[in-house]
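Contributing: when you submit paired examples, paste them exactly as shown. First protein:
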Amino acid sequence: MLLTVESAILTRPSNLAELPLTALQTRWWFLCTAYPGGSSPLVGLVHRIRGPLDVDAWRRAIDTIVNRHEILRTLFLDRGDGPVQIVGPAEGLPLEILDLRDVPAAQREQAARDLLHDRRSLSLDLQQGPLVHSCLIQLGDEDFVWSMTIHHILSDGFSLAVIDRELAALYPACRDGSPAEVAELTVQYGDFALWQSTSDTSKEEEDRAYWREQLASVPPLELKNSLPRPAQKGAPAAEIGYVIGDDLVRAIDALARATRCSRFVVLLAALNVLLSRFSDQRDFCVGIPIAGIGRTRPELAKLVGLFNNALALRARLGDEQTFKDVLLGTRDVVFDALDHQDLPWGEVVATVQAPHEPGRAQVFQAMFLHDDVEVASRLELAGLVVEEFPLPIPRILHDIMVYARPARGGLGIRFVYDTALFTPETMAALGRDFEALLREVAEEPACPAFPAR
């Protein structure tokens, strides 16, 4: 009997040792085996903690989280006809402790970044593990950097906020010996995987038809001044970053209100114009992450797991369009895509029969990621100060990823790029032009998107 998306997710039988992968996990399994490289795709938390941290209580809080969430103890075995996931015992997680207080004070931060970069650049074995790593670096008597890295097949960005919220409750409880106010988990990610493997929805075929039409014959994005594309992905990533000031952010927000859009849509429309100018293409896709179907169900909302989906937003632009035309068109594309967001990305790729090239990501080569809050603000601990400790991304599967996130004094913009394709000079020019374009369109939304040369 096929289940519907409204059907209850039940706890699986206790004797069921091997579980199917979700559609999103299957996609990551494919990516990790089809795009060989020197490092695995990871998501992770990095916090600088200043104050009298109780290290033993911190370790016990992390152990509790790992024991609560089975996915953080999961490995993947290839059975020949496909992979399965197997949950390991609830034995916590080793906390690697590194003391840098013997390093000269002026060199400690860079030494910490080097150590964490090495740990984020590893190629993890999905069958043997470990797929989760926790590291606490001591820079001073009351100065620490904590990092948790998780293979992307286990987790997503939203899950990091779940971990932060649980740490905020569990650490003081472990330190003080008091009860922790964390909700009981009624199901686990493996239960969701089993449910998804036997579920169906009446809307699935409608979604498939939408994406089949929307993404038919979409051309790949090729930016000008790029280097020759290598046969396979695998080069390290690099990035440029800057902060656009509060005055420009307010102007962007005013434009969003005036056009009944959001800041996200304004930024995405401007990025579409920027990429179009740098490629001389008027037709391409930009990918965005979304929370995914699991986050809309109350029994799954508080789980660590891979729920984030991806949407391919197609930009079909015209030489005579104004920026406002592009903006309103982008808004419509976003709204339509959100109506069909439940089909997992791997199934979208299969539906549109996107060609597989080891040197190029399928369907979209650029991604845009927009956050509403600063990461450090998610974790508040009494008696301690929690700050961000930014680290570069070691490798990306796409050509370019553009991040926008609130920062002190405005909005932080980061261009992360594949060093096999782009030089720092090309990315710096892209970054400068993006800020200039945002200022231009915020002042005059009716300006030509593609001025005559």
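Second protein:
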Amino acid sequence: MSSENNGPKGAAQDGVNRGPARAGAGPNQQRKAAAQKPGSDIGSLMSQMKRAARETAGAVARRKMPSRAHLRARHLGVIASFFLLCVAPVVISSFYLYAMAADRYVSLVGFSVRKEESGSAVELLGGIAEFSGSSSADTDIIYKFIQSQELVARLDAKLGLRQLWAKGNPNIDFIYAYDPPGTIEDLVEYWQRMVKVYNDSGTGLIDLEVQAFTPEDAQRIAQAIYDESAALVNELSAIAREDSISYARDELTDAVRRLKQARAALTRFRNETQIVDPSASIQSQMGLLSSLQMQLASTLIDLDTLRQTTRANDPRVVQVELRVEVIRKQIQAERDKLGLDGPVDGLGGDGQVFAELVGRYEELAVDQDFAEQAYVAALTAYDAASAEARRKTRYLAAHVHPTRAETSTKPDRPMTIGLIALFSFLFWGMAVLTYYALKDRR
């Protein structure tokens, strides 16, 4: 009996009895049971685990993946924005540049403000003279002048800038062509677009780039700008020379006036007194008076001698007395000429009248001498200032004369289209990245 129970029937019964226990066992017990069973039980467990992994991955993918309709709408929006923000600007700008924009020609001109400074002979021998140089202040003045409303108004009156720049047909080329008449402010604003000024403060060079719709007009405008700039430099140079010699000229004018007044006063004195040089006149008059007085003294001695040695009615005494009387009258006449008072027999007299005359003459002569010295000094200073002003002159030197273009270089169509495409793509890319960043944050 025991052996029958241990046979196949008993084994089946034992499997039946253990089946519910395995069926009700948990995952840990199943894994333990699978670990105790060989072969087919392990393979079935592995297949179940793979199937569970696939189901989990599918569920996760279904939760994260949007619907096909939502995905298609977003992509279509990105593609539409690309055509709107990138392709459309490039197409529109290409059509305008190649079909509507007029060709523009460029004339180039370059110049600088030079200053001549030649020194004296000593400086030339020493080798320290500076013959030419550039003035940065003058260059800055010319740079501002070219951009000023004054120059634009001058050239508009001289060349007719409004008509020249309207040749691009503003009805078609509505961006680059000038729409006349417009105000002077509009013309100045358009001038800033058509005339480019480049100033190198280090070297003092100024380069101009003048644009027009014909090469002849561009060259005419560039030449007119150069001529007006040269006229301004000449005006500045004339003002500088005038400032440098104005003070010396004023001093010279004052010295000439004073000299004329001194000479006129001395001339009036000579006309009134009938004396050219009182010093010479007094010397001659005093010499003559001294000679007459000496003759009078000698004659008086002879007269006394004759009176003592001859009789009273001697004819020689009468003749000597007559000679004495004549000499006294002559002395009195000479003294009257000199304005001297006092006895005729003396050599003196107060001499006050003649002293005042001589003093007045000497005062006028001193004034004239001082005026002459002041005139000579003022004339020397004026000549030196004039020479210095002539040594320091400004002029406009052109290193590139106004050129005449043979082909149009403006507008630069490939460069313009490339820049528009680049910035359009950058703007579109930033917009798309911003949209996706905001989408992910939600």
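If you have annotations for the second protein, write them as plain sentences, like these:
Strands lie at 105-117, 132-134, 195-200, 205-212, 392-400.
The first strand starts at residue 105 and ends at 117.
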